[in-house]
Amino acid sequence: MAALQRLADSQTAGEQGPVAVAYSGGADSTALLLAAWRLWPQRVCALHVNHNLQPAAADFERHVRRVCADWGIPLRVRQVRPTPAARDSLEAVAREARYAALASLAREAGASTVWLAHHRQDQVETLLLALTRGAGLPGLAGMPRHMRRHGIGFLRPWLDVDGAALRAWLDAHGVSYVDDPSNQDQRHTRNRIRHRLLPVLQESFPAFAQTFARSARHAAQAQALLEEMAQADLQAIGQPPNIRRLQALSEPRQANVLRLWLRQAGARQASEAQLQQVLRQIAACRTRGHRIHLRVGQGYLWRQGEVLLYKPDEGAAGPNL
Ligand SMILES: Nc1ncnc2c1ncn2[C@@H]1O[C@H](COP(=O)(O)OP(=O)(O)OP(=O)(O)O)[C@@H](O)[C@H]1O
């Protein structure tokens, strides 16, 4: 609660609006709801999203409704039915649908920020997941403490808090919560990390959760710097990017600014090999007749005169998840 209060003081100083907690019914968000309710009994409200993805979803919703009724906390529930397109993972689509629903519920409740209950171990899992996918700095930065999506702020006040301490706190108060059976399903990489890898790490490196989280913070800071540099370089090379001005930058800076431009142009899932190919073509582009036409992400990048253009495939443009 002290961690929550400190963060709330710094983040929401002067704000008197509702404190909207994303409440799944699981242990962590139950602890967050309880802590917020104790700190701001009149201001807290709960937001729940029913993904309708598993038979237990209806039980979660019933549980959430009962707890909120018992504690006298206003609750808003939204039904979503995530349907992934061929190349998307169900998890990613469900997550995106959840954020959109939470933002919309927060707006209805008059809240400017949604509070999420991710804690230190969630951050470590996210970092390890990113490593298994060969992520770059944005992935290694882990989950941000705050972000904006769909016009609403999202805050993770407990990123530095130990998950076991939260559960112990709930048990000490005799508060019930639901256990999501899908968290046991070891077909999901995250669950294998949680159940098999983390116990071994804990045994060998007792402070790993803190040190991994610190590494994520370092990566986040470096990534913020790269973003700033990409913004400045994009200004300098123009939009669409001028090839000669791009060539004046070092190769890492070219890659950095191209990633930003491609993202803004709607290029989803551009691979490392594709970006390398683009860089090679830019380096080789020294004559008027040099042609560039490359598949990048779900779309095409080509040269037109002095500049590069990009067009996503029909229906492929969208947010990078
Ligand atoms: N269905 C949902 N409705 C509202 N908020 C949710 C929902 N699912 C997740 N969240 C929010 O996102 C956070 C992280 O989600 P995650 O899937 O890791 O948690 P969980 O295991 O479902 O629940 P918990 O974190 O409460 O134990 C949750 O702590 C909660 O704040």
From TrEMBL:
CDD domains the record matches: TilS_N (cd01992)
Gene3D superfamilies with a match to the protein in the record: 1.20.59.20, HUPs (3.40.50.620)
Keyword ATP-binding: yes
Keywords from the UniProt entry: ATP-binding, Cytoplasm, Ligase, Nucleotide-binding, tRNA processing
Catalytic activity reported: cytidine(34) in tRNA(Ile2) + L-lysine + ATP = lysidine(34) in tRNA(Ile2) + AMP + diphosphate + H(+)
Pfam families recorded: ATP_bind_3, TilS
GO biological process: tRNA modification
Taxonomy, superkingdom: Bacteria
E.C. number: 6.3.4.19
Domain tRNA(Ile)-lysidine synthase substrate-binding, first and last residues per copy: 243-303
Domain tRNA(Ile)-lysidine/2-thiocytidine synthase N-terminal intervals: 19-196
Cited InterPro entries: Rossmann-like_a/b/a_fold, TilS/TtcA_N, tRNA_Ile_lys_synt, tRNA_Ile_lys_synt_N, tRNA_Ile_lys_synt_subst-bd
Predominant place of localization: cytoplasm
UniProt keyword ATP-binding present: yes
Family assignment from sequence similarity: Belongs to the tRNA(Ile)-lysidine synthase family.
Function comment: Ligates lysine onto the cytidine present at position 34 of the AUA codon-specific tRNA(Ile) that contains the anticodon CAU, in an ATP-dependent manner. Cytidine is converted to lysidine, thus changing the amino acid specificity of the tRNA from methionine to isoleucine.
Domains (record comment): The N-terminal region contains the highly conserved SGGXDS motif, predicted to be a P-loop motif involved in ATP binding.
HAMAP family reported for this sequence: tRNA_Ile_lys_synt
UniProt protein name: tRNA(Ile)-lysidine synthase
Provenance organism: Tepidicella xavieri
